[in-house]
Amino acid sequence: MKGLHAIAGPFFLIARESMGHTFAEFDHTLRDGRVVHVRAMRPEDEEEFVQAFDRLSPDARYMRFMRFVKAPDMKRLREVLGSLHEHGFGLVATVPAADGYDIVGSAIYFLGKDASVCEFATTVAGNYAGAGLGSLVMRTLIAEAKKRGVTTMEGFVLSENRPMLRLAAKLGFAIAPDPDDGSIRLCNLRLDDA
Asked: Whole domain around residue 99: which residue ranges?
């Protein structure tokens, strides 16, 4: 699939429908005591994703998008947010902010031609790294994929992105070099094993 890395792509407890399934929003206390609200992505998150992108360091952008990206691809962002209900699922972790909320973490998957296989991508704001947010959004994404009948989750991670590779290994992903590109590691998880 190798497509999600190109996306220039983070209260009330309610449920959100996606692909005929309901996602129950929830609050979670991180290891450092901060509380995040986890919910499904929605098209109206567009401006908050732009702000979240702007808050990422150049290095974090490179690790997330696997290339240097100066600005979000707004057309692609709108396509992704508008098609999740049909082609995948995404979630955000938010915190209250002066303008309503900030996205501090996100995880997304898109289905491949075989609807039992998906590709994932995730982002965590730098000031939330090490607090357990990456693990939270990935575990939640994996659980949602399983509920929706996905059997295999895969992702492409830069070999230098050690934090993401450590997280993937901790979550049970098999990690192997990409035979076409030595700078990339293929992460693959059989969801019936997770």
From this structure: 4-190
